[in-house]
Known about the structure:
Layout (H helix, E strand, L loop, with lengths): L1 H9 L4 E4 L8 E6 L5 H11 L4 E4 L1 H7 L4 H6 L19 E7 L8 H13 L6 H8 E11 L11 H11 L5 E6 L1 E2 L4 E2 L2 H11 L3 E3 H12 L1
Parallel strand pairs: 1-9, 3-5
Antiparallel strand pairs: 1-2, 2-6, 3-6, 4-5, 7-8
Amino acid sequence: MIESALDSLRRGEFILLYDSAGRENEVDMVVAAEHATPEHVSRMRRLAGGLLCTAVGPQLASGMGLRYMHDVLAESGYAGMALGTAPYGDRPSFSISVNHRDTYTGITDRDRALTIRGIGGLAREPDPRAAFLASFNAPGHVPLLAAAPGMLAERRGHTEMSVYLAGLAGLSPAAAVCEMLDAQTYAALSVEGAAGFAREHGVPLVDGEELLAHARVRRN
């Protein structure tokens, strides 16, 4: 399934990514940031319904100068609000939220797609921080997620998994991710429901445990 997912990412198509029952127990729709289009954004908000974010790999995040929001809050007089460990066992990967400077409101499908593609393109810049500062405004409508420096050896979230897959596919280390929600139960879509969606729409569903095993083998 991993190879099928990599082919889909290279073609600019969606994959579904499940973390694990012992963590968030959620499935995200994922597309490579560099391939993001208004149609992708539209489908993610209509068919997934969660928070549409852009996950960024650790080297790119460092090059951009991204900081975790819990650290920013802790240093700005809101330390009491800063979430340490989330109920699922990890520190949140949220950084700041941005809009590309060529957007208008920033929230439309076209605007968010432009912002997401722009983040994906920063990996090709000789100075990602300078390009980031020159091309984006904050606050904006696309939350950025910074992958843990140790990637999957340190944190096993959708942020790290999506960036890991983008890297395996030979793409920019950035991906648009959006949790799949269930309008019937008002909760996260079950993995069984996501499997049905995957079959209906011909989308690969990657199991996080399989991905972690793949990453362990590559490190050995």
